[in-house]
Known about the structure:
Elements: H1 2-21, H2 25-32, E1 34-39, E2 42-43, E3 47-49, E4 55-56, H3 58-70, E5 73-78, H4 84-89, E6 95-96, H5 104-107, E7 111-112, E8 117-119, E9 121-126, E10 145-149, H6 153-161, E11 166-170, H7 173-181, E12 187-191, H8 192-201, E13 207-210, E14 217-219, E15 222-223, H9 228-244, H10 246-255
Parallel strand pairs: 1-5, 1-6, 10-11, 10-12
Antiparallel strand pairs: 2-3, 3-4, 7-15, 8-14, 9-12, 9-13
Amino acid sequence: MKKYLASLLMGVCALVGVGAAQAGAIDEAAKRGTLRVGMDPTYMPFEMTNKRGQIVGFEVDILKAMAKSMGVKLELVSTGLDGIIPALLTDKFDMIGSGLTLTQERNLRINFTEPFAVVGQTLLIRKELEGTIKSYKDLNDPKYRITSKVGTTGEFVAKKQIAKAQYHGFDNEPEAVMDVVNGKADAFIYDSPYNVVAVGKFGAGKLVFLDQPFTYEPLAFGLKKGDYDSINFINNFLKQIHEDGTYDRLHDKWFKSTDWLKDME
Length: 265
């Protein structure tokens, strides 16, 4: 019995040792003094690059507040959205903060925090189609050509819910929008916060914004599987900024005014 208890105790100690060795992303960032966040800075007004080459936006400000609450510096690692999950899994950064929609497919690969915002897919259509195209269902026809950014839920929705239309994706949002402005595509499918800005920034009077979202998309921070300590920390942080007014202040800064547009690239 003594030998059995001794071996059992050794096994428990070994498991504790493994757990201690596998520190979470937030703990590692605290020790390092830097929180590294993977981000594709092309998603207005969540993350984008201004004229001085700085990455700014609503999500960036949330992350700055998070890093400040930890007493560390924030390091943004610019990464294309289509490769951002593999980059997280190979330790290029600690977490994903890139307007990432929590989908079941992605959730099989990584863990997500509680959502910090909820958006939905909307349409920017050619002005000539106003009245003809009233919803995404009207585009589900081989005669229409639709576009979005590759690797996004806009692309997923286009291929799944508007599968009969011709689809061509682009590496960034502005190119895809301009494809519609220039009459080469009939509609651009993307998140509502981006489209509400893009129709004014790129539209040149040639686009119509169908602003009724037709999907439900919670945006959340992504972390490696099993990193529950980090998820706990971030969820509690999000609750704190909702309660103390920080979230509303930052939201108003980026969503109730478009003054920041004049400082963008």
